[in-house]
Amino acid sequence: MIQFYPFEVVPLPYLYDSLEPYINMETMFFHHSKHLAAYVDNLNTLLAPYPEYHEWTLDRLILENKELPEEIRLGVWNNAGGVYNHQLYFAGMTPNPTQLQGKLKDALLLDFETWESFYETFFQMALKIFGSGNLWLAADERGKLVILPLPNQDTPLPKGLTPILVLDVWEHAYYLEYQNLRAEYVRCWFHIVNWTEAERRYEHALLHNLLCQKEQPSTPPADDIN
Ligand code: MN
């Protein structure tokens, strides 16, 4: 979905209470209708006086952030990231059981050897994030998967990585239900991951990267250089 100013709070693809018992209604309600809404409002307020950026997408506001006037640069970075990351986080969960499958499953088993090894690595990294941030599963331009912790509302986009799945470990994502027990929250999150959506994103990334490679001019054969 291409989005630009004025940004809107994209509705959840499920009801606030439908992720129970893993994430309760109160948490989902505040997270979506208060926290995400605040990022959307802040971003719109920052951009309102600057019509020249009203056709910039979320990705562009993040990737070309340095082009923005200094007085809104950091605010746009944080709030565009907040909108981008929360949309991915909410779309990455579902009340309907899904299974890791397809090319994403193949890549995950290639890069982490076993499901258990992936799970344990991801789980431990989620516990280690200090302060506010997100844990990402992202793909590089060759489709290799990486698990990447990022602080605040940073995104993997400037690193040239395509986000596949994101786990929000800001306290607002779990404190109402789990208080300080982040490990419980992470275990529960694994029950509601939308692997179908993750697989869709991964396949899309592979296709996109393939097309980009084709568009690049081929380097001349070695014979032609001299
Ligand atoms: Mn959040």
Description of the molecule:
48% of the residues lie in helices and 9% in strands. The chain has eight helices and three strands. By secondary structure, it is mainly α. Helix 4 (102-112) packs across helix 8. The mean pLDDT is 93. Strands 2-1-3 form a three-stranded antiparallel beta sheet. Residues 31, 35, 86, 168, 170, 172-173 line the site of manganese (II) ion (MN).
Give the strand tally.
3
Which structural class matches the secondary elements? mainly alpha
Percent in helix: 40-55%
Distance between the termini: 47 Å
The fraction of residues in strands falls at 5-15%
Q: Mean pLDDT score, rounded?
A: 93
- N-to-C series of helices and strands: HHHHHEEEHHH
Integer-rounded radius of gyration:
19 Å
Strand order of the largest sheet: 2-1-3
How many separate helices? Answer: 8
Bound molecules: manganese (II) ion
Largest sheet: 3 strands, antiparallel
Shape: globular
The low-confidence parts are: none
Topology at a glance:
Elements: H1 25-47, H2 58-63, H3 70-91, H4 102-112, H5 115-128, E1 133-139, E2 145-151, E3 162-168, H6 175-178, H7 182-189, H8 195-215
Antiparallel strand pairs: 1-2, 1-3
Bound molecules: manganese (II) ion.
Residues 31, 35, 86, 168, 170, 172-173 line the site of manganese (II) ion.
